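Today's session is about reading a structure prediction critically. Students often jump straight to the picture, but the first step is always the sequence itself: look for stretches that repeat, for charged clusters, for runs of hydrophobic residues. Only then move on to the predicted structure, which in these notes is written as discrete structure tokens rather than atom positions. Here is the chain we will use throughout the hour.
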Amino acid sequence: MCFSATASFSLGAALIPVGIACLKKAQEEDRRYMPLAAFPLAFGIQQAIEGLVWVGLGANHTRLVALAAAGFVCFSHGFWLVWTPLTAASVEGDRRRKQIWRALTGIGLLYGLYFNLPLWLHLRQLAVSIHNHSLVYQLQLWLYPTRFLVLLGYTLYVLTILAPLVLSGDRHLQRLGGLVLVALLLTANFFSAGFISVWCFFAALVSLYVGYVFLQGLEPRSQPPLA
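Below is the predicted structure for this chain, in token form.
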């Protein structure tokens, strides 16, 4: 599979209007689902930003690459670490799980700051390269990336995003989480070098499911709160 500026811009252009429509639908039907409704819009913006990374690399425009890559990482290693558990908390019917998702939102915020603060203090902390038609983001962190810390970092990153979806009490989030998990496994097996970029691309595709959910209507498919 060949990823490119065209692929990113096309996906972004498709997702942004879907996201806007979902937000309007959620506002009319159930505002608890507003964070979920924002998924396609946020992914659309993120893909448009990554399209600029591709353009910058193709034109050898260092400043454009640095700014666009920083914007992409702000989503991948910041926004989604907070927004995903926050989304789960907003629709969760089980009190204990809601507390867990809220706590995970705080953890995601701290983790996102750990990734993004050094980046925005010095844009050269982030390097971007092309490997097998996908983008590889290499971020220099404050702590030396030993093998243990890298494994711990990946585990915490994946759990912060996947757990609130897969373990949610809401069936819409459960199904979305299942699709995101499939995207993760495909990426890990076939596109490991460009893991973050490719997983975000596949997750953006998967977010079209959110559009389907709101097109069908929320109430008939919603799972009742768990005791």
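Discussion point for the tutorial: Residues 62-91 form the longest helix (30 residues).
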